Amino acid sequence: MQPNPLTWTTLPNMSAERFFALIARIQKRTERGQADDCWPSSYSLETSGYPQLTVRGQKFRLHRVVHLLFNSELTTGQIVRHRCGNPLCVNPEHLTKGSYLDNSHDEIRYRQQQDGRIPPDDDYYLRQSHAWDVFWSEYLPDQED
Fold first, then answer.
1. Calpha distance 145→142 (Å, rounded)
2. 82 Cβ neighbours under 8 A, 6+ residues apart
């Protein structure tokens, strides 16, 4: 399932006053630290573990809204990835757009880092994982039993 695009027209029409009120509302329920720290939010969580925000009766994942407000719009098929691996984090510096494949690679990397299998700044294993995916999808034909 492809995520819906999130653009300024997706959010309900907002005046400048409502726009700044939305930012203030998000900041009030966010634990802001240094620029490179995670900023966890205290909004209610979806079943998937992501904070959600209701804007004029519509529910949005909070990190997607923050990305829209501070970084850029999302087109069809794009998702917001957490560079830090923390689904509660809404620090705009930790949010970047990407694909489901990028997100899967991120998840593998975070798990390996938590297990101590790779150091936090080592991209070797991420590159190897991508190379294996390319090999598996392009060079090996589908096997029929």
1. 10
2. 63, 89, 94, 95, 106
Q: What is the pLDDT of residues 27-40, one digit of tens each?
A: 999 998 888 899 99
Residue 42's H or E segment, with its range, is: none
Helix, strand, or coil (residue 5): coil
Q: Are 32 and 103 in contact (CB under 8 A)?
A: no
Alpha helix stretches (DSSP H) within 34-122: 62-70, 100-114
- Measured between alpha carbons, how far is 99 from 83 in angstroms, rounded to an integer? 13
90 and 97 Cβ atoms separated by less than 8 Å: no
Are 119 and 87 found together in one domain? Answer: no
In a domain, 145, yes or no: no
Q: What mean pLDDT is predicted for residues 6-35?
A: 80
Examine the domain organization and report whether 87 and 110 are in the same domain.
no
- Give the structural domain span for 46: 1-98
CATH number for 21: 3.90.75
Q: Kindly state whether residues 44 and 114 are assigned to the same domain.
A: no
